[in-house]
Amino acid sequence: MRIVVILFIVLITLSLGSALFSLLRRQGDRRRTANALAIRVGLSITLFVLLMAGFASGLIDGRL
């Protein structure tokens, strides 16, 4: 489960970087920026749901 969470965090960061690059380099291409940000939001929501399911099923415990 730890690897999945780390993978999602990396993908979220890459999507955010892609949106920033698109915003700075291609100023007229708003659709690409919006798509990258939409993917980031989708990945963030999916990660949140996976974490909630992990806590509920016992795959993730509350301890550090």
Please give a handful of descriptors for the protein shown.
0% strand, 64 residues, mainly alpha
Q: Can you give a write-up of this model?
A:
This protein has 64 residues and is an all-alpha fold. The protein has one domain. The chain is 81% helix and 0% strand. It has two helices and no strands. It has helices at 2-25, 30-57. Helix 1 (2-25) runs antiparallel to helix 2. It is elongated, with a radius of gyration of 15 Å. It starts with a helix and ends in a 7-residue tail after the last helix. The model has no long low-confidence stretch (mean pLDDT 89). Keywords: Membrane, Transmembrane, Transmembrane helix. The chain crosses the membrane at residues 6-25, 37-60.
